[in-house]
Here is the input.
Amino acid sequence: MTDHVIYTNEVTKIYQMGEVEVRALNGVSVTVDRGEMVAIMGPSGSGKSTLMNILGCLDRPTGGEYFLDDEKVSDLNDDQLALIRNRKVGFIFQSFNLLTRSTALANVELPLRYAGISAGRSEIAKTALERVGLGNRIHHKPFELSGGQQQRVAIARALVNNPSIIMADEPTGNLDSKSGKEIMDLLLNLNRNGATVIIVTHDPAIGEQTQRIIRTKDGLIVENQ
Here is the structure.
């Protein structure tokens, strides 16, 4: 067993666009240690989103190996990947991706429902919302919350299953600077308390706050420090 929560070895991803072969990832080897906070950065078309989708078990590599929590996930089928996502990965998206007609509590309960957890589900979700400072907003629906509060709900939802990694895709992209700073402070605090956090971002100011930046270009890692 290792301290790597993520380990990839020569991962490739090839998309077939008609007769054209697009190599989105071209032999990427990367590790992320347990408890680390890492930024993935790069220009559009550099492969960073493809890398995030593979690391988050949203997609499978064409070649190479990917181990998450010492489990080889690169060869799993779609149903198996869905189970891994539910148990081991917490996602935070730029657009929040909340159910608009459901309360904050119901949104945070969703991963628990998918995991088949019924006993104490509401209490677990309430605790997650309290952890992000929304204990007094649990019965509010997204339209009754500010953008920053909606992102906090999304973070609580990402945390509720105690995932191995939290993956944040441009988590401050739709927020004003004040709300963005509050969300970043929350992610930094989660990391200080032991969470492994991977942030995909265009913002150098966010990258500078992480422990390490992985830069992608033309499907390759060009910097990893």
Remarks:
- Residues 57 and 81 are 6 Å apart (CA to CA).
